[in-house]
Amino acid sequence: MKLIQIVCILWCIVCTTSSYSQQIWGYYLKNSMPYQKHAQYWDKRFATLNVLCFTGITIHNKGCNIPTFEEDLVLFNKAQTRNIALVPHITFTSVKAGMAFFKSQQHWQATITKLAHAIQQNKWAGCHFDFEYIPASYIQNLVEFLKYVRAIVPEISLSMAMFPQVEFNPALASFHDFAILSPYVDTIVLMCYDYHNPKTKPGPVTSIQWTQKNIEYALQYFKPHQIWLGVPAYGYMWKNNSYHSVITMKSLPHYISLYSNYRHNSETVALEYIKNGDRFIAYVPDKALHNQLYALALQYKLKGIALWRLGFE
Length: 313
What we know:
The protein is α/β, with parallel strands linked by helices and about 325 residues long. It has eleven helices and 14 strands. It is globular, with a radius of gyration of 21 Å. It starts with a helix and ends in a 5-residue tail after the last strand.
């Protein structure tokens, strides 16, 4: 009888999990990997990609710049023929420009209209705002801007990259206060990375425990289908406790083959070695960690995974 009960429970779990489809969002740096030169990579990546979020569009203090994307047009066309959604990544040219733009409402309508025209003309699937490092005192300006976007183009889906709110620098996180912003966006990318970064002491760029805490916090303000879990395909290296460089997942096997390494309690791979009298230490995600992060997104039935960035993996 107990065996039958166990089988029934396992069957229910399998059925529940199989009915949930996890999606993949990939950030792409403009002109970094044109299809013509990286066809093998893209043909393999397209098989698992649902959203291609491309950088290049920027907002300055009086408007926005929309490039032609000439080098990436083949890539974009290939993606769309495979029913992969194209979403423009929109950010400020600088923090100073962002602050000035938020204070200049007279430029908002023209900017939004220009963005909307490009989105509709190119059949892009909404827009993705990535506004970082803005002081928390500007959050009401951000709210007004998002409301303005909604009023002018209510049909366009809005997503936003947001800093984690648990155990993260409050000077950065406060501008992305979930309680205030959640009514004004359709989806978010929860950026569970840069836990340690070039401005901190050495440490992991992410961790399983920290990510789980931030997912659970975000779910107080967003529904699961509104959250993409931001996952890093990179880590940082420090030299004598000062920031040294970025290490990508792609380059990690090379470092592992040369230097002492171990699995850190964050589940990143830690590298430690001494070279020419200098002490180097790095913490880098690998496939095993990614699998655990994917499992977390699956466990909480999130929209999917958002990878920063394509080509690093």
